[in-house]
Structures
1.
Amino acid sequence: MSVIALAELAAELDDGVVVTDPDILASYRQDRAADPSAGTPLAVVRPTRTEEVQTVLRWASRHRVAVVPRGAGTGLSGGATALDGGIVLSTEKMRDITVDPVTRTAVVQPGLLNAEVKKVVAEHGLWYPPDPSSYEICSIGGNIATNAGGLCCVKYGVTTDYVLGLQVVLADGTAVR
């Protein structure tokens, strides 16, 4: 992958979204599974909006670059293990939440931590039951990806029992609901 192609991606996104600092890249190589085969990514991309995710995936598709999504990096399943020359797409800066207490629903971006979701919905008299042991530091996006549960799941269900819909971005950059 050429430096020019990566510069093209950076030019299409807001300043600071594309990170190539070797020290930062090293910290995004793997999640807590500590996979010894983790590669070194070409870049870490930290979007804040769906449109930026679309831009990244269109670019990656065009240049045939692998993309590994990453939430908070707390997973133990190796789902956020970087590939050599790939992109780590971190959702950590996608942190918006909107709560509708009338319909008892919340629209949550994937980078919000589980504990933050619990706190915000509680302010509206609601409760979000899934409570993995890492709930204070794990992200909702990662919880959805792994169908996280916790002690409350025996009675109240796991993460997917609380997901009514998703907006996802496909490999070609198309956003679907």
2.
Amino acid sequence: MTGGTNDQAQVDLRYGGSVAQRGAGRIYALASTESGSDRPDGGSGVDGWKFGQGGFRADFTQANNLFTVQGDGYVGDGGTQLLLPAPAPPFVNLAGEDLSVRGANLLGRWSRRFSPRSDLALQAYADYALRKQPSQFGRIGVTTVDLDFQHHFGLGPRHDILWGLGYRLISDDVSGAFPVSFDPPSRTVKLVTGFVQDEVAVVRERLRVDLGAKFEHNSFTGFELQPTARLLWTPSPSSTVWGAVSRAVRTPSRVDSDLRFVAQVFDAPPVTRVEALGSDTLEAEALIAYEVGYRVVPHPRLSLDVVAYYHDYNRLRSVAPGPPVLDGSVVVVPLTLGNDAHARSYGGTASATVRASPHWRIRASYTYLKMTAGLDDGLPPGTIADVNPGFNPSHQLHVWSSFDLPANLEFDVMGRYVSELPGTQPAGDEVKEYVQADARLALALTPRIGAELIGRDLLSQRRVEFFQSATNPGRGGAIAQQLRAKLTWIF
């Protein structure tokens, strides 16, 4: 049970036990509520939520077989406020409205172990999600069915092979209207996948090569290949050096292909409507990733990790204006999606874990990211890249310290620094760099009853972490200082 500032409250119940000495099961339920977030101007947002979820899981064993069945269901109601285009004067509408989500899922899994180097698993999954948001999307219902098979086996003394097949079907129905709709309103897409991976012990316990590839056929771009190669060298028991080269893709989604979104309406005159249109000719966005890393344990109480990478993105989404067309008395300026942008990013992460004493643990990490983006040559004027490097902070520093204190007390402190987001400056605003801290004090009252006091964002009363979009009249939600109390009872 949790309660705190900002009218936050949550209750979790969980019960589990053994079943017929061959299995175990558990059920759970939770309910939570939270009032609207603060706005940067000091006002109160309308994005409060009430949410409930429940589910179960059961695991059974028989000889070398393990069977798992689990399911969840949820319901949520909240609010939102958006500044959206309107088809008639004043051509803009401040829409504050209720929204709701409903959903359920069911999963079944069978796995069998033949030997220490041979096993297989078969999994089936079904999910249904419903979202109602009248002014923007209307009603969206999505049904997903997923099948997955994996087989692992050893081949000779040096090869460890994992392969698998998958099938996914997604069917949706969208009843959107102005300003957001889909054409067609209903669609079923299919994804067939396969993969194979071979871990090769070149020099036992010293040098290993991992070779693999993922194959897929999707409803938007057809066949896609995603290979990867990884090298791991262990020069000593306390250190490991690794490197990897991989290709990955992001295939177009239903939004990329079928969206119709009225971005703006204004009285020129004549009345002009700017409309973003999906494209069924989009290709998959492609990434070539180069990564290297080093891990060392110079002392039993100290471990260090360093990772560096370079990412090369191609065929990224672009937006190009088309020639205006007349729709009755309204001039329509179409904006069409393409694959004419590219980007490059490089950076790294350094982290350390220290066990200063049996009762004190420290973790620290620093991340650096540099990203540039641009357009391919020969594009029409007005084309823009649908990627903004300024949406990512260049520097992030995190420090976590955990103390085990006398009298069954635990005290954790988490500090972080995040640099500014230069690409999010609508109307002269900006997301500035910040330093923030969280803290947690926990007390074990009995072996079955525990209490916690949690503070988040303790160094400021209110701060802006991101801007959502120009359609948000509050310029994004403000993160407020939070205090929470939590009570746990195990029975």
